[in-house]
Amino acid sequence: MQMRFDGRLGFPGGFVNFSDGSLEDGLNRELSEELGEAAAAFRVERADYRNSYASSGQHVVAHFYAKRLTLEQLTAVERGAPLAQDHGLEVLGLVRVPLYTLQDGVGGLPAFLENTFIGTAREQLLEALQDLGLLESGSVLRP
């Protein structure tokens, strides 16, 4: 995930331009702008689509995709992100989501979920972790 300019956690993305051939082309362009050159090592495809959300009153539909990366791809993205076009403007930094819960039952992912997220990013995170087999359904309480 990323720390956004407004202090909330969210995912890379943005608006699709008319010059973008598809939603996926627009998303991959945005990934390059927000994550840097390392994002060119992979491509988000239609098969990575998870869900869509229409916001009321803003005339915006947000489409959510989740892509499994290798450790090498993730490390390359993390190293290159500070050099990305939008770093320091839209994006203040990347954040790794802790995929564990400490013995106290609070530390790790449960504590991470107490942060402030943009829109439906918190719910999208939980759904993606379950879809990708990284989190058991119902293992984290939802308020």
From TrEMBL:
Cited Pfam families: Nudt16-like (PF22327)
Domain Nudix hydrolase: 1-127
PROSITE patterns, sorted: NUDIX
Domain of life of the native organism: Eukaryota
EC id: 3.6.1.64
Annotated keywords: Nucleotide metabolism, Nucleus, RNA-binding
Gene3D superfamilies xref list: Nucleoside Triphosphate Pyrophosphohydrolase
Cellular component terms per the entry's GO annotation: nucleolus; nucleoplasm
Cofactor: Co(2+)
SUPFAM superfamilies per UniProt: Nudix
Transmembrane segments: none
GO molecular function: 5'-(N(7)-methylguanosine 5'-triphospho)-[mRNA] hydrolase activity; IDP phosphatase activity; phosphodiesterase decapping endonuclease activity; snoRNA binding
Record GO biological process: mRNA catabolic process; nucleotide metabolic process; sno(s)RNA catabolic process
Reactions accelerated catalytically: a 5'-end (N(7)-methyl 5'-triphosphoguanosine)-ribonucleoside in mRNA + H2O = N(7)-methyl-GDP + a 5'-end phospho-ribonucleoside in mRNA + 2 H(+); IDP + H2O = IMP + phosphate + H(+); dIDP + H2O = dIMP + phosphate + H(+)
UniProt-annotated location(s): Nucleus, Nucleolus; Nucleus, Nucleoplasm
Main location: nucleus
Family classification: Belongs to the Nudix hydrolase family. NUDT16 subfamily.
Protein name: U8 snoRNA-decapping enzyme
Lineage of origin: Eukaryota, Metazoa, Chordata, Craniata, Vertebrata
